[in-house]
Amino acid sequence: MTDSSIRHPSLEGTEIADSILDLIGETPMVRMKRISAELDLECSLVMKHEVTNPGGSSKDRPALEMILAAEASGELQPGGTIVEPTSGNTGVGLAIVAAQRGYDCVFVMTDKAGKEKVDLLRAYGAEVIVCPVAVAPEDPTSYYSVAERVTRERGAFRPNQYQNPHNATAHVKTTGPEIWRQTAGRITHFVAGAGTCGSLTGTGRFLKSMNPDIQLVAADPEGSVFSGGSGRPYLVEGVGEDFFPAAYDGDLWDQVIAISDEESFLTARHVSQTEGILIGGSGGTAVAAAIRLARDARPDDMIVVFNPDSGRGYLSTVFNEAWMANFGFVKECDQCVGAVLDTRNASIENLLYVNPQQPVSDAIEIMRETGVSQLPVCKNTPPFANAEVSGSVDELALMEVIHRDPSAMGMSVENVMGAKLPTVGVGQKVELAVAMLETAPALLVLSGGRPLSVLTRSDLLSYFTAIAESVTAHDDEEN
Questions:
Q1: Is residue 319 part of a domain?
Q2: Which domain holds residue 437?
Q3: Which of 29, 209, 271, 454 has a 20 to 30 A CA-CA distance from 385?
Q4: Is 473 contained in some domain?
């Protein structure tokens, strides 16, 4: 039975929405008053707060628009199936629309996604297929391959948010006009994170049509292609990419500001605690970029920052002290792992590493010259800020390999490397490093989410020895 065949009591004269889909959009804007006062900003810094959409994010807008367009084109028939590879907010938006309009939903996710995200989509009645993340895209069990197979087998519609033009259209139709009306046309800058690029490009197209002088600013994670990186590695979710989606429009954008993971996460935490607005890591990226602009803005400028979702989805990461400490974003104490590194021989580089394609002989030579026993194997270097750790090599393991096969000296390191070293944050307690080194040959120290150095038992021994000698010298002086 269709909705049109059901007789409903009239809602005329009430303030009751006909369906949850009617609550998508018309999200509020709020002045970031306390942040502005804290930084002594002269301009107006305001937030477009997308959390009030039914699914809790800006992705409800393109989800509805993509489904309506597919219905109009005939790509999606009554009672059909929607298939999309997603682990985030787009899936929630599509699930909400599907529930209201009578479609089945199948979402394909990697096993990297948290259990709560799988459970959330299932709560909306969707089917979720979990695939291994550690396989090549062309592997039949990969995230992309499974989505394509299920789409074919079920004759389903795949919105494909990265290529679907209606992603950006949703923001041309709704987000842009709302911001223009809510600011009374006073907006001078629009700042948003760039992932699929739909929100920035779509909103920007409308705003530029009303006033070509409005500045469009992409807030991008360091390492993403939009700010000139390779696309990895970074930890912030929902923004940045390793390819250019269909909605990317570099000619429309006026500026791209690269923001580190550390600045993104610390900004998100500060905004949440200062303004009482719980934002996620990608919201922190956007706010951090907006603050940089605001510091040099004129009194008449109005900077609108786009907050895509809530921080509630990041309680186990951005707002978890242990997680933040392990990645080196916060310090647990003063006498921490960083203090151990400070006592090391200054002539040794902070981080020694080898690339996967280098021959084993290179790794051995580095170990001989520096006296180290373990090396991380890293891609995308130099600079090391863009490095991606893929494994490690150990002198004992290399000795065994070469003993069995002397020709291994000419092999690529990636063919003989072992697992990645366990990680510890630069601000974590020394006691933790001691406990970890009881079973691990070495630890990879992280700072700001990036590899900083390798920590060994020898480093800890030198550190404790220095402390003991200092105590002894102090006691001798007093006596």
A1: no
A2: 324-465
A3: 271
A4: no
For residues 174 and 281, membership in a common domain is answered with yes
- Asked whether residue 175 is domain-assigned, the answer is yes
In a domain, 7, yes or no: no
CATH number at residue 428: 3.10.580.10
* 257 class by beta-carbon count within 10 Å (0-12 exposed, 13-18 middle, 19+ buried): middle
Out of 48, 59, 117, 379, the active site residue is 59
59 assigned to active site: yes
Cα gap 175→154, rounded to integer Å: 34
Give 318: exposed, middle or buried? Use CB within 10 Å, 0-12, 13-18, 19+: buried
Q: Which two tokens stand for residue 381?
A: 């270097």
Q: Report the b/e string of 56-93 with b at 16+ CB within 10 A.
A: bbbbbbbbbbbbbbbbeeeebeeebbbbbbbbbbbbbb
In degrees and rounded to multiples of 5, residue 150 shows phi and psi of -65, -40
